[in-house]
Fold this protein.
Amino acid sequence: MTRFLVFLEQREGVLKKSSIDAWNRVQEIAALSAGAMVTGLIAGPVDRQPIGDLLAGDGVVYHANEELLRPYRQEFYTRLVTSLIKQESISALFFADSSLSRDLAPRLSVLLKASLLSGDLLFNRQGHPDGSFRPVYSGLATASFLPQRNITIYNLSPSRGMVTRSSADGTIQVLPIELHQQSSDNLLAEVRRIVLRQNSLDIAEAGIIVAGGRGMGSSAGFALLEELAALLGGAVGASRFAVDEGWRPHAEQIGQTGKTVAPQLYFACGVSGAPQHLAGVASSAIVVAINSDHDAPVFQVADFGIVGDVHLVLPKLIEALKEFLKKK
Ligand SMILES: Cc1cc2nc3c(=O)[nH]c(=O)nc-3n(C[C@H](O)[C@H](O)[C@H](O)COP(=O)(O)OP(=O)(O)OC[C@H]3O[C@@H](n4cnc5c(N)ncnc54)[C@H](O)[C@@H]3O)c2cc1C
């Protein structure tokens, strides 16, 4: 029987939306490939909600509920995943793309002699992950892939609008799993943990993103976007130009050399819509563009467009939104 394993990432005890989205996608693939079983793995505590309420479909989720695993520790996570893959005879391992998966997946692929595929992957009609394809060169061509090894690791970009419905049907069985300690473990120490900004929402997880580019004019210009994002409960994103200028941190860069995002609502403010930027935006459910140039390429992908100066349009939008929220 084909067995798929989904690595469900928690951060600070909260299951990541992108992981729930990956779980749902793998459930769909399994439903199309007769008889495939979906198994999940969580390393570290999940504090807020029962795991079974967060995930759709049927399957077993192994939970290593140990405080030691709350922060990402490469050695421990590697050991946990490799032992479960052997125990369950897993043929395909799925991650949701994140800084953790970009570190762990290549390491596992070497250790397990597994094929590794990442990006905006689509699977063949039968749903079986063997034979997947993805857009390349910023969407100008499509490449297909046939894994050559017994195990394949997929690092999935989020699906359009990131589907994180909770389980209405199916049964999720949560089973404990232990990390087998080794004598060398006490030689490992966390050297330093860097938190860039407290309480800032990760753009890869955000349901609403308000992104700005060169048209915002300066780092001070982004204050408008921060205000709008705060009102909407969203996150601020940036084009590479804004990041290269030092207006915004690299963690907020969206696109080919930044993050791939999949919010329900994406605002592109003073962003031209270069292919390298749009490569990271394609999975957004609704795109709203504000740009003073009505020929800007971003309008070709926008669902709603406003031709105008961001410094005039955004304050009006913020005022209207405040009025709207007051009445709610
Ligand atoms: C290998 C490679 C990788 C790259 N990776 C990325 C990436 O990951 N992410 C990324 O974003 N870019 C990436 N780029 C850069 C990309 O090609 C563009 O240069 C960049 O996205 C442009 O940023 P921008 O839209 O902010 O600026 P511009 O292209 O200069 O556009 C500014 C826009 O703002 C509008 N504007 C100006 N003033 C106003 C105003 N007052 N009100 C309203 N609108 C206004 C203009 O009409 C224009 O459309 C990459 C490039 C290369 C070669």
